[in-house]
Amino acid sequence: IHYSQFDKTKSLLNPALLANQEEDYQIQIQRRSQWSSVTIPFNTFSASFNAREVYKTYSVGATILNDIAGDSYFETDGLAFSLAKLFKKKENVFSIGLQAAIYQRSINYEGLIFLQNENLQKTKFSFFDFGLGISNYKKLDRNRALLVGLSSYHLNKPKQSLISNDKVVLSPKFVFHCTYYSSTSSKIDISPVLYISLQNRQNETIIGSGLTYKLNDQVNLKSGIFNRIGDAIFVTLGMAKANLEAIISYDINISTLSSASNFAGGFEFSIVYAWNIIKKTNKIQEKICPKYL
């Protein structure tokens, strides 16, 4: 399960990032569909609610996830809760996050063909999952900043077998991400990124850059081009106005599957709505003392 817009669903990238959001509250939805030109598409959907500093320097978040893959309709449903603590020191904003999740996976054998009889009776299983992350946002100067983070998931190596094989587990996954923010002019901001994930013998590396153009005081146009090395090139296009941001992206497949997929990869969109709570301040009533001679 992965997104091209990997930085939108914070719980899948790094739970520590909950403490770094600019607004007090944030609602985010994201959906991806890929491989529709090759087979039954792989569809992923997630929805998140994040709240910054609900108690002192602690932030919380919750994410629901649904993923359906391939001819077997291999489905993953989950609910993840995240907790992050913020540490501020001069120009550095350091945070640490913890995550606990419960997932259920199920499969449909009706669309599958086996070369020999298989005694497959179990169609679903559930498991708990634990992860953690750290991040640091550093303001370099007035126009530049750097965000670096490291996270890990499946630390408890949850069992993943439909035939009760204890040796089949979900290997720990490690993620490194880095984003450099720079204002090149009064209207243009760029944000080069590096994303690396490692899980057992599998790996994923993404490099590229986002670009924001300030159309006016209320509207920002967003775009970007990225390379998932050895797999796909994808572009993003979107707009942000006031508290709402909407971005779409499309993958152009360049892997060995490109001839079968006709270079078609995946379509994805994300919508983020964020807002602040206006805190009431108690007005101090002034008492004018009379002047005496």
- What is the string of helix and strand elements? HEEEEEEEEEEEEEHE
Structural class: mainly beta
Q: How would the global form be characterised?
A: globular
Give the terminus-to-terminus CA distance. 81 Å
Q: Give the percentage of residues in beta strands.
A: over 45%
Major sheet attributes: 14 strands, antiparallel, barrel
Describe this structure in words.
- This protein has 293 residues and is mainly β.
- The chain contains 2 helices and 14 strands.
- The longest helix has 4 residues, at 10-13.
- It is globular and about 105 Å long.
- It starts with 9 loop residues before the first helix and ends in an 18-residue tail after the last strand.
How would the blueprint of this fold be written?
Layout (H helix, E strand, L loop, with lengths): L9 H4 L11 E10 L7 E14 L2 E12 L4 E16 L2 E15 L17 E16 L4 E10 L19 E11 L4 E12 L2 E13 L4 E10 L3 E10 L2 E10 L4 H4 L2 E12 L18
Antiparallel strand pairs: 1-2, 1-14, 2-3, 3-4, 4-5, 5-6, 6-7, 7-8, 8-9, 9-10, 10-11, 11-12, 12-13, 13-14
Distinctive features:
14-stranded antiparallel barrel, 2 helices, mainly beta, 293 residues, 14 strands
Q: How would you briefly describe this protein structure?
A:
With 293 residues, this protein is an all-beta fold. The protein has two helices and 14 strands; from the N terminus they run αβββββββββββββαβ.
